[in-house]
Amino acid sequence: MNKINHAGVVEAVQGDCVKVRIVQTAACASCKVAAHCNASEAKEKIIDVTSPDAQRYAKGDAVMVSTTTGNAHRAVLLAFGVPFVLMVAVIVLIYLLTGDEGIAALCGIASLLPYYAILYWQRERIGSHFAFQIDRISN
Q: pLDDT tens-digit profile of 66-101?
């Protein structure tokens, strides 16, 4: 299976953009004891799906939003992989230059600020590389 699917509900339609509310759950949220465990969590998120036939959807419609696993891997890489490598590289470099673990750790953490700022400023451009598909769920 090369797709990731989430059921959702249409919140709004604006031009060719459909705003869909999905419930993102942790993997353990379906566990029988999840209600008694702090590890399980569920968050509601709004996904913007661009579709040429967006006008056929209405608020409250049950839909399935999907994307490729490649998009998911790319998102994880941008959100966690690149910053981890950046932080470790900065920590090692600063430690080799100064020999001070505290300064190296602070510089490593500080290196994430410009990275996430650039990611935020480029969110429109980055977001254009992530495509979502939408399909109506038939009852």
A: 888 888 888 889 989 999 999 999 999 999 999 999
CA-based Rg of the chain, rounded to a whole angstrom?
20
| Closest among 69, 27, 63 to 48, alpha carbons compared | 63
What pTM value is reported for the model?
A: 0.66
How many residues make up the chain in this entry? 139
Q: Residue 80 corresponds to which amino acid? A: F
pLDDT band at 17 (very low <50, low <70, confident <90, very high): confident
DSSP assignments along 79-126, one per residue: IIIHHHHHHHHHHHHHHHHH--HHHHHHHHHHTHHHHHHHHHHTHHHH
Report d(CA 105, CA 97) in Å as an integer.
13
CA distance 71 to 56: 26
Q: Which residues contact 104 (CB under 8 A, 6 or more apart)?
A: 90, 91, 92, 94, 95, 98
Rounded Cα distance between 8 and 65, Å, is: 7
